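Researcher: Go.
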Amino acid sequence: MDALRHQRTSLPEFDQVTEVEASGRVLAKKTEEVEAVRHELERTQKRFEDEVALLEDRVQEENGKLYGGNVTGAKDLQALQDEIKGLKDRQGLVEDSILEVMEAAEPVDATLGGLAADKAGLEAELARLDAAIQQRQTEIEDELVAVGSQRSDQAAGLDASLVDEYDRIRSQPGRIGVAKLVGSTCHGCHLELPAMEIDRLRKLPDNELIHCEECGCILVRT
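Model: Structure:
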């Protein structure tokens, strides 16, 4: 039952979950960095687009002046035409800059797509591991119930004081309740008992409860 309880809390999938979660944190940091680059490109593109909109408004305004009939002087008309040309030239440069930003965004978007796919893969793996953990823990719980029932049946045929003594010893950290004494070696602590102690134990009645003087477990003489 102790071995089953240990298995329940130390399944190999737990270590795998830790590794996947660590990979997820690395991936999240990388995604955050790439998203920051993408957002900066978006801000730059928006700034250029706003400038294009302002230039278009200026061109329409200047065209209104040029063809509105209020400006009649040759020099003034030429000045308006030059102003309109300069605005359109600037608009063309800004629109080229927008295209450059859009081209720069393409590999960034591709990277984000790959990172999103990696995240989906990690999430799927976590889901698989979680299902595996739940299944194995359910199996272990069923085994614990079965072994616990078997233990109860076996304990029912024993002297209550003997069972109490067994449980008392096992409740101590690192202790086992009962072990064989083979020759002069306790199979609970795997230490060899002194010759005088072995001689003393041999003189005791077969039904007398004996303990290992090293680890305290109940000894079963063979």
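Model: Residues 74-156 form the longest helix (83 residues).
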